[in-house]
Design brief:
There is one protein chain. By secondary structure, the chain is mainly beta. It has a single domain, classed as Roll (Pnp Oxidase, Chain A), CATH 2.30.110.10. Helix content is about 15%, strand content about 45%. The strands form three sheets. A seven-stranded antiparallel β-sheet has the order 3-2-6-9-10-5-4. It has a three-stranded antiparallel β-sheet with strand order 1-11-12, with no helix packed on it. It is globular.
């Protein structure tokens, strides 16, 4: 399969955008991700897929706990700030009540997670995590969506 053809085909599938956050030496660490999915209801599990080359995931993994922040449609700048390799985004956050992991200001919801398993898969790592807690902060907000290489919003109209 030609990689460009594969990329173009997969861009036809819209995804939400999340920021995976953790703490290393009392400093916010995180990365933007589109590879996020609810995996199981019983027990509650989610999955993310950071790139093997990620510099942030190994730093987050050390703590075993992390937070997945679901972005609002007007948070494109937040996604872009966390997409810069090797830099720490200067975004306001507060510790979650359940794990103390960073909850980003303005996110629709956050999911407190604990690392359960990892599996190498091509140029990504499939991460499976137990959901410790989940908090929907703004149920009326609309999510940031990524489709055909561009950010957008979602309308239920």
């Amino acid at each position: 399969m030609d990689s460009q053809k594969f990329r173009e085909g997969m861009s036809q599938f819209a995804t939400g955008v999340v920021i995976v956050t953790g703490i290393e030496s009392n400093v916010l660490v995180g990365f933007a991700a589109q590879s996020f999915v609810s995996l199981s209801l019983d027990p509650p599990l989610v999955s993310i897929a950071p790139q093997i080359a990620s510099t942030s995931w190994p730093r987050i993994r050390k703590g075993h706990d992390f937070c997945i922040n679901i972005l609002r449609e007007d948070q494109r700048d937040v996604s872009e700030a966390f997409a810069v390799v090797g830099e720490v985004a200067s975004i306001k956050w507060q510790p979650s009540a359940a794990s103390g992991m960073p909850v980003l200001e303005g996110s629709i919801a956050h999911i407190d997670c604990r690392l359960r398993a990892e599996h190498e898969a091509g140029d990504h790592t499939i991460v499976i995590a137990d959901v410790i807690d989940l908090n929907v902060r703004d149920p009326a907000a609309r999510p940031l969506v990524y489709f055909r290489g561009s950010y957008g919003g979602f309308s239920s109209d």
